[in-house]
Amino acid sequence: MGENQKKSGGWRTNKWVRAAIPALLLHCSIGTVYCWSIFSQEIADYIGFSKGATEWAFSFAIFFLGMSAAFLGNIVEKDIHKSSLIATICFAAGMAGTGFFIYYGGMHKGSILALIGIYVCYGFIMGIGLGTGYLSPVKTLMLWFEDRKGLATGLAVAGFGAAKAIASPIMQAMLDGLGDGGIYKMFLILAAVYFVMMFIGHLLLKKPDGWHEPQKKEKGQSMMAVIKSKPIANYIGIWLMFYINITCGLALISQEKMIVKCIGLAGAVGIISTVSAIFNAGGRLGFSAWADTMKDRNTIYKLIFILSIAFTGIVLLTNGIKNGEGNTLLVVLVLGLIFVVNAGYGGGFSNVPTLLSDHYGMGNISAIHGLTLSAWAFAGLTGNQMATWIVNTFGKPVDIEHALADGTVEVLTVNPTGYQYVLYATIVLYLIALVICFLMVKPTEKALEAKKAKKAKK
């Protein structure tokens, strides 16, 4: 890397201006995809469809996020300006298109064209923006922050996780304040706001001058050739543990609100949701920054799975979800499980690009990272659905009373046994992931050398 990158003088060579800030602008915009639950019911009511029918728009968005990252990773590798512009246009156009079809659905209640339009705009078009926008800043950050790659990627991916906590109250205020048709007006306004934010990020994003010089030897190798430079089981192991971590995270997070109501905290659902989002973002930054101090970044995944297994096991043994109401200790344990899983879910995202770069180098990291994000696509289709099937199949719904602030009583229908069974599924998957961590994902050369040096000192 040239001398210009070692100086922090001008804005043109400043790593914060050219990498960190644009990464946050991009990720804080696209991360609002996780705000879906705030307005999904409003969309369903406005266009005259069931909530279940509209829910597929979010599943499609996550699926196409992962698949576009997998198939467009080479474009990101070759030209981050082209990929960040594609992300900006697709995300804003998808959001504006969603607003238009919500408006159309309001004028023509029950129109299948409106529903399909929302699927295409929120799911497919926005999904492409999500995948390319997620990838574009990651390699750039790792190049600018060579000594603290985990901190750098964690900062950006934390922006993706924190977007929900930041945007949720704003969106709710817009829905409340825009009056009739507020749902489609919100989408059109936010499409313009996020276009401006992402376009500024696109203009600022830049790789360090001369970054390609040390990569010339790797440049001629294809992505698959780089992956096959190590036993293929190594990459399969990384993909599987990433997939399992997301699947388990989504399974629990999708039932989070109902679990909180089961333990007698229905009035604090909003606050707990915000705190869990903070843990999600904190895990993205904290776990990845912590990994910078380790010889083998895979240790972080081992810690994530061990903590998740421990808290899940304790809640299962104590029947915390079923017996939590009125028991302070069990409430703390259940909340601890929710926060730990959220932190581990976020940490899994921020550590995967740096773990891949440690194993396969920086030459094709965007393409390899994109391929690995296909795990996110499949987890997006299986995590929520697995939990929903378990809750609908096991146990039985029960009614619990919840006192509202105005003194009236609200009756809530929950299935504590069903939520407990979700934990049985996730603990088995976490155990499988932990075994994969130890047996399939081999230590890097750096980790092995450190181990040898340690033995030599003894």
Give the SSE layout.
Layout (H helix, E strand, L loop, with lengths): L2 H4 L8 H16 L5 H12 L3 H28 L1 H28 L4 H33 L4 H29 L4 H23 L11 H4 L3 H5 L4 H23 L1 H7 L6 H23 L6 H20 L2 H4 L4 H33 L4 H8 L1 H20 L4 E6 L5 E6 L1 H24 L5 H13 L1
Helix pairs in contact: 2-6, 2-7, 2-8, 3-4, 4-5, 4-6, 4-17, 4-18, 5-6, 5-8, 6-7, 6-17, 7-13, 7-16, 11-16, 11-18, 11-19, 13-16, 14-16, 14-19, 16-17, 18-19
How would you characterize the overall build of this protein?
- The protein has 458 residues and is mainly α.
- It folds into 2 domains: 14-207, Growth Hormone, Chain: A; 222-445, Growth Hormone, Chain: A (Up-down Bundle).
- Helix content is 78%, strand content 3%.
- It has helices spanning 3-6, 15-30, 36-47, 51-78, 80-107, 112-144, 149-177, 182-204, 216-219, 223-227, 232-254, 256-262, 269-291, 298-317, 320-323, 328-360, 365-372, 374-393, 416-439, 445-457; strands at residues 398-403, 409-414.
- The protein has a two-stranded antiparallel sheet.
- Helix 7 packs antiparallel against helix 13 (269-291) and helix 11 packs antiparallel against helix 19.
- The chain is globular.
- Residues 1-9 and 213-219 have low confidence and may be disordered.
Brief synopsis:
The chain is an all-alpha fold and 458 residues long.
Quaternary status of these chains?
Answer: single chain
- The CATH superfamily of the largest domain bears the name MFS general substrate transporter like domains
Query: What is the CATH C level class of the largest domain, in words?
Result: Mainly Alpha
**Total helical segments:** 20
The ordered H/E elements are HHHHHHHHHHHHHHHHHHEEHH
Distance between the termini: 37 Å
- Counted up, domains total 2
| Sequence stretches where pLDDT stays below 50 over 5 or more residues | 1-9, 213-219
**Strand portion, in percent?**
under 5%
Count of DSSP strands: 2
How helical, in percent, are the residues?
over 70%
CATH architecture of the largest domain: Up-down Bundle
As laid out across the biggest beta sheet, the strand order is 1-2
Please outline the major beta sheet.
2 strands, antiparallel
The computed structural class is mainly alpha
Named CATH topology of the largest domain: Growth Hormone, Chain: A
Q: Write down the overall mean pLDDT.
A: 88
Shape: globular
